[in-house]
Amino acid sequence: MNNHTVEIISNIKSPDGNSYRVPFGKNTILIGENEAGKSAIAESLQLARTGSAFGLLYRDKLVRDGKLLSNLIPVGEDRARVVATFENGETCSWTLERGKRAQKKGQRGSTLSVAELHTIMAGTNESKVKFFWERLCEPVSVTDLMAGVPEDLHETLVLVCPLEGKINLTELLDKIGKFQRNQNDVVKAGQIALESMGSIREITEDEMHGVWDTIQRAMVRDVTKAMYRDHKADPTLQLGPAIQYLIEYLGGKEAFKKISITDEAASDLSEVLMHKRLSRAALAARNGESKASSLRDSLKALKVAVLNLMKASITTVAEEFCERIGAFLPEDEEFLFEIDGGDLDIGLWKVYPEESTRDGHIALSGSTEARILAAIASGLAEENDLIVVDDRMWDSDTLRKTMIALEKSPAQVVIMSTISPKGRARKAWKYVKISREAGKPLEVSDEGRKD
């Protein structure tokens, strides 16, 4: 049984800091000029019910961070607070004091705003597939997953995901993405390492032996010269034969003169050893980069395979989903939901019964787009959920048709609009007028609308 919010008391974005009271019905339309305070009311309702609100502070996501939400505290006040009362008398609340964490008491269902759906639909094809698969499909068995993934990717699949029980494919995609990012980091680290090493040349074993031979000869030459100086200073040492032997060992007098001094030979040895070590490090970096690149390519292919599996699952339930969403659209419109060339397209079929034809459109905007997104939200919602339809430049006739269609939604519906809908006030809707002057209290009128 639906247990919707019947009232909120809030001071969020209050111009004078005082709390304001707003009544709600199962379906409510908030009517007011731009900047009148409609968004503050819708945000208050979301925060009270779930502790978060979509689109706050220019962020295309649900916002629940206390530091960000502290901007909702009225100027000169110490806290922001909203209390929601439900049809059965129960309440839930959200309170945020400056410098403290938000306090949430009670929770009623989930919230799906048209603004959030708009962001998802404007996002990547992957984000749309993940969103609808999560809400329309069931986790798959290991057998079905392995059958849907090419055999040459099974090893990569096992690396990413323990194959046991039922597999949630959206969670699997997230894991694949995390692995991809990790491998990207390894590839970049390898590239940076190679760049930082500069110009590295390969050191052969012959070159290595040659350098060691050079430094050995330099050291023998130094010993020979030292012996010669000692012999000149004291001929009685009888070092002549030994000196002569060492000179001949080094190739004779001419070769003796050409031998590098020890410091130069030691410098050559240091350079060769450095290149030897760097070449080993470079080899390790290249191998790491190569392995990471190969794994990254496998992960990319695995992601494509999993996405294709998700698209196939969505296709099997697409017809039933279209019928479900169609229940929340005017009679002359049908929901367009198909996967074409790998892309998930959402739009509207305009039906012309008298001509037995229909036109499909996926490039929607303004109130038409809002109407489609509100229908999707209703088709996905359950009792005790909340749907928030933001102001989309409504015309009065489109607004009225949208309200009629959404009366069948199982969720509580709140629409924001700068205009009143066409025609007489509908019994299924509560009409709430909002007005505000700078620095003055928010004015809320529950008098319905005048034709």
Percentage of helical residues?
A: 40-55%
CA radius of gyration is 38 Å
Total count of domains: 3
Oligomer: single chain
The CATH architecture designation of the largest domain is 3-Layer(aba) Sandwich
- Identify the CATH homologous superfamily of the largest domain: P-loop containing nucleotide triphosphate hydrolases
Number of helices: 13
Shape: elongated
Strand residue percentage: 15-25%
Question: What tags apply to this protein structure?
Answer:
451 residues; alpha/beta; Rossmann fold; six-stranded mixed beta sheet; elongated
Description of the structure:
- The chain is α/β, with parallel strands linked by helices.
- The chain has 3 domains: 209 residues, Rossmann fold; 91 residues; 62 residues.
- It is 48% helix and 18% strand.
- It contains 13 helices and 16 strands.
- The strands form 4 sheets. It has a 6-stranded mixed beta sheet, with helices on both faces.
- Helix 8 runs antiparallel to helix 11 and helix 12 packs parallel to helix 13.
- The radius of gyration is 38 Å and the shape is elongated.
- The two termini are 33 Å apart.
